[in-house]
Task: structure prediction
Amino acid sequence: MKFTIMINEGPYQHQSADSALQFCRAVLAQGHEIFRVFFYHDGVNNGSSLSVPPGDDRLIQKEWSELSKENDLDLVICIAAAQRRGLMDEDEAKRQGFESNNMIDGFRISGLGQLIEGGIESDRTVVFGD
Amino acid sequence: MAMLHIVNKSPFEKVSFRSCLNHVKPGDSVLMIEDAAVGALDGTSFSDKLKTAMGDVSVYVLGGDLVARGLSEDRMIDGIKTVDYAGFVDLTVKNETTQSWL
Result:
């Protein structure tokens, strides 16, 4: 079965980023397909490369990045939500005239249409958030 | 078409759990995750409302989230089933649609 996952909460905010990660792992472990993971609202902060939690804490952004690499996941960040929160990839940073960018590997920036397409193309859409 | 209702807020903090129970249809399932896990406890100001709903819907709790809050299954309302993340995925497969009560 094909899944699209939507995440509306940032890492370390409450529990939803962790819940969504564990849910995605369980979906993949059962042989299902994840068509797309869409990050919206504060959820875009799951794609930051500049998070440095204490050494004994989990690094949620890296866990997403690694899960994406291992399973070829399509992790999409909403552009409007990302711009508001100061999160950008190399192309977007250039376009906006910034010298640096802060998006971790495995994520890409796109628009809400990607969420709608995910809903159409997938058998199930599951939402996590605050 | 059966729906899986996913609740993640404590019924003692937000009204979303109560709203959910006011909207469920017979044959639906309700899954308590995150802070909603405390709603599984028996003998609370909320337990009667959940017990009434359980006549029409199946109720589940994510076991890890229950234990993470220092709660154990022996304090739960009879009839609530404990699931792990694999069981969570199974519930989303079994029900045609899901609704997260954020």
